[in-house]
Amino acid sequence: MLGICRPGRAGGGERRLGFMRVLAAMSGGVDSAVAAARAVDAGHEVVGVHLALSRMPGTLRTGSRGCCTIEDSMDAQRAANVLGIPYYVWDFSERFKADVVDDFIAEYAAGRTPNPCMRCNERIKFAALLDKALELGFDAVCTGHYATVVIDENGDRELHRSAAWAKDQSYVLGVLTADQLAHSMFPLGATPSKAEVRAEAAARGLGVAAKPDSHDICFISDGDTRGWLAERVDLQPGAIVDRDGAVVGQHEGSQSYTVGQRRGLGLSVPAPDGRPRFVLEVKTRTNEVVVGPKEALATAEIGGSRFTWAGRPPADPATPFDCEVQIRAHADPVPAVAVVMNGELVVTPSVPLDGVAPGQTAVIYVGTRVLGQCTIDRTVSAVPA
Amino acid sequence: MRYYLDHAATTPMIPQVLEAYTAALAGVGNPSSIHSHGQRAKQVLEESRERVAASLNCDPVEVIFTSGGTEAINAALKGLWWARNTDRPRPVIAVPPGEHHATTDTVEWLETHERARILDLPVDADGRIEPEGMRAALAGVGPASGPDASSSDDVALASVIWANNEVGTVQPIAELAAIARERGVPIHSDAVGAFGSVPVDFRASGLDALSVSAHKIGGPVGIGALVLGRSTTVVPLLHGGGQQRRIRSGTQDVAAAVAFAVAAELAVGGLKQHAIELAALRDRLVAGVHEIAPDAVLRGSVTDRLPGNAHFTFPGCEGDSLLFLLDMAGVSVSTGSACTAGVSELSHVLLGMGVPEREARGALRFSLGSTSTDADVDALLAALPAALTRARAAGHSDRPR
Fold first, then answer.
1. B251 and B281 share a domain?
2. Cβ distance B387 to A5 under 8 Å?
3. Reported pTM
4. For a tag site, which of A75, B62, B133, B305 has the least CB within 10 Å?
5. Domain check: are A240 and A129 in the same one?
6. Does residue A96 sit in helix, strand or coil?
7. Predicted complex ipTM exceeds 0.85
């Protein structure tokens, strides 16, 4: 029996060295099940918790989409049974709607391109869930993310890429702060490949060993993000313009375009040089979509006022420092120089970046270590108009 | 050591019931068969039906065995609806808020698929249906004057729960049934939570139909009964071999009927003494909870209440957090409301009683039964202070700020 009802906050009371009360967040997938299993093996007292994120959960999983159906919850419970740990479902559907889904819609409505998985990590898994877990007597939250927490010589926590480069999820954890990292466990970080995790799941008798990976945005069950947004964002027809402001076409709603998009523009005026044009900017205030040549997509500088450090910050962030910047979950990192200036994290990549849109997150690394991140507010084109 | 304070969800099978059940399972013979094996099975089945009927004070032919409470309620509500809408349309179903989901979801289904109109029967802050409110509501759908002024012929049926499964309020069933009868409206009662805890007398109640379930009284899961007055007509849900007045086709479960009969006799036989003891234990629990949490609100009626029920709302925390923490401390309790895939829903019973949403989130139900002892109450009262401290610290952190 867990001694969770002992008075005092987690961390008090007598315990074995290195032994913790761990909440294993279990989605019903193979990664979180194996992560929980490893936490059990490490001698921690583990409780499995499935997060109910949808108010109207579907009954059955369809293909690789979604992760919040009743079937997924049952998969998580069966995995917990195999591991011999208690299992509960915690309802975060209202928080998830307010902090992730509504935020996603609002960001799109403002012409930005948000990453809802990062928001979920920032506001649900490592905020609402972690806060509740700590208050209810846990010491840490364990997830199946592929990332590594390293303790440096001073005992401070650092977030690093996982050993499995192809599965590395340190990018979506870039929003974690020192305090959050101090209560996070990622037991899969040192595993070289997903195949190994699946093999381990099979060896442990976990029924989810061969379950398909989930893709796409979990709350858009049919994968049609554009159609889903069109039902929720007030779209008004307007003009598509070139960089000089000349009208080259019409759109049905500027918010349904994303920076870097080429297809589906339906331009009526051909480019003078006949070359394809891309969305360079979405101006929701004037309801205009700006298009131009591919090279104009190249971004020489990005800036964001909402930035965080993943653990120990740089000694002097006001002095430019070398790093690498990554702007999508599976983009390659690019050498860059970063500096905090006028309350903004400004990142200058050594070579221009393609397809950067406001609302995206720029995560900066030093080697394998995640240093911090910012939500991109503004970009500077490498090719002035 | 684990402590079970969730007898309203299901209660342990009584040893004599288990013995009779397993002995009966060994028998062979379909009660519908003509040969001696069949006749023997039929004899055991009908003896069981007679014993269940005696426990509920109805005729044996009025007992229709079902798979449980949910099926009985569906058979009653849909069956009455269809029967009452065969000769002319009677579009209204009279039902209070805060019924069990077996009722509310069936009525909603009839609303969606059969264009039923729901007439809300008003409840007070304790969840008690007000007889005068029911009379006024039914009178509202009848002709205002003329020879039919006393009839509410547009009302297909009424259904009221005998004792609320969450907050434990016991309804004045006979009074409500008399009003329905006055207005010419057939009335059903869900007595699943009441049977075995308070006297349930079908004949004295004046009801047309009543539903009960075996596993709430120490019998097995998988059998219940619809008590249907001999003069009441329903259209059957299940078609097939024509068993049980052609109302419930399907091979009858002799062993489960035997177990149900034993459980029903034991429940009714010792009811008076059992209820007194249970209420005393429950009152100790309530006093103990109030000592620990003076701001906890006992929901439901104080006087007309199931003897084993104690339902509270605890301000400033989620019932789910308390449930989790108490479970970790070895005490099994419930938030009282239905749950979907492990998540308790916000109680429609409390909302129907006018409890604000935020208060309703702190709901927790403790329910006692035949195996409950002082040790169960002691364990709860020992674990509750620390659980409350932690749950209040977590507050409503899983809700939007």
1. no
2. yes
3. 0.91
4. B133
5. no
6. helix
7. yes
